[in-house]
Amino acid sequence: MRMHQDGIMINGKEMNADSVACLLINQDRKPVIGIKPKGRRIVPLKLCFQFVEDQTEGIEQLELWAQASHVKITKGFFMRWL
Q1: Which of 38, 48, 66, 78 could serve as a FRET partner for 31 with CA atoms 20 to 30 Å apart?
Q2: pLDDT tens for residues 30-81?
Q3: Is 8 helix (H, G, I), strand (E, B) or coil?
Q4: From CA 14, how far away is CA 55, in angstroms rounded?
Q5: What are the C-alpha distances in Å from 47 to residues 36, 81?
Q6: For residue 64, what are the CA distances in angstroms to 9, 45, 59, 68, 78?
Q7: Which of 20, 3, 1, 22 is nearest to 12 (CA)?
Q8: Would you tell me how many other CB atoms lie within 10 Å of the CB of residue 31?
Q9: Which pTM does this prediction carry?
């Protein structure tokens, strides 16, 4: 995953910040992050991921990117499309 000012790249897929409806963070023992595109009701599985190392720092950096890009963050359970 790579974040830059205009968007985010995950699993080789580039998404502009304008096309992201929200970031969802499932706060379990090992948090799962989902990127929900605009116009979708459920997060696609290919846009779900976990940080392998430095989860706390990774989530903090992702939250900073979301705030700078004006992307909503929701914490809690979310459905994923399999």
Answers
A1: 38
A2: 889 999 999 998 898 889 988 888 888 999 999 999 999 999 999 988 877 6
A3: strand
A4: 22
A5: 7, 10
A6: 16, 23, 9, 6, 21
A7: 1
A8: 15
A9: 0.85
